[in-house]
Amino acid sequence: MKRKPTFKTSCISRIFGTFAQKEFPTPIQKIINQTYTKLMHVDLKECDDATSYASLNALFTRKLNVARVLEGNENTFISPCDGFISEAGVAENDQVLQIKGFLYNYKELLGDYIAKENRDKLSNGTYINFYLSPKDYHRYHSPIDMRISKAVHIPGKLYPVNFKWLQKIPSLFIENERVVLECYTKDDKLFYMVFVGALNVGKMRFTFDESIQTNAKTSSQQFYMYKNVELEKGDELGRFEMGSTIVMFFETNSVDLKVKRDTSICFGQSVAQKI
Fold first, then answer.
1. Looking at the predicted structure, is the pLDDT value of residue 176 above 50?
2. Among 158, 134, 9, which residue's Cα sits nearest to residue 61?
3. pTM for the complete prediction?
4. Whether domain 76-274 has CATH 2.70.70
5. Can you give the residue ranges of every domain in the chain?
6. What residues are paired with 150 via a beta bridge?
7. Of 79, 136, 138, 141, which is the active-site residue?
8. In whole angstroms, what is the distance from residue 94 CA to residue 136 CA?
């Protein structure tokens, strides 16, 4: 097994987060934003011009100026984000791929506050990994009309989640900080959305509950229960403050996947169809 790096990624991310949130004098900020946009090949055709954002974080978390078309019908799951499908498939023996050749146990990923009966519902179910690079639109959205019953914040490291690092650290997703959302469709089919932190992700924010605090100095898992949190397909769920990963897990025999690994995806495009 390859030796794990020892640098303090959480500290690095907090420092970078402070820099990204700082509003520099306008001429300097314009240079910072334009440089970042050019280096990362950021496409702003659906957003404001780079020079209009007051901080680098504001550029990271930019809103869309146009409404995206949501593909499919009421039984279609859409992509919750812009990104890249790094893996998609079926869980076997509680194992799924973080990248080709590197397996991890999804039950460990979900943390300590997910009921065993719900974990078991995912056995032989399907999953999708969405990787958001630093150039991508960083907000995430509801993939279907849904109800959120629980959120679990699991502190951890903040290793990068690009392909180089996924091949370097086994079970990297389990090592990293993450937030798990327990979700249900209108007909009570279970699915999970797991938001995985990464290097330079200052925060993961959630519009339905601002009390969820990530990249904080805590080592204990926190859980939050909800009774009346319902969202419509396409509603904003929150945002990454830099690139990262979302993993979706579906109850066994509940969906047919409509995507394959190694493909780009945009928020609004179809990724699965309810059976």
1. yes
2. 134
3. 0.87
4. yes
5. 9-60, 76-274
6. 182, 225
7. 141
8. 30
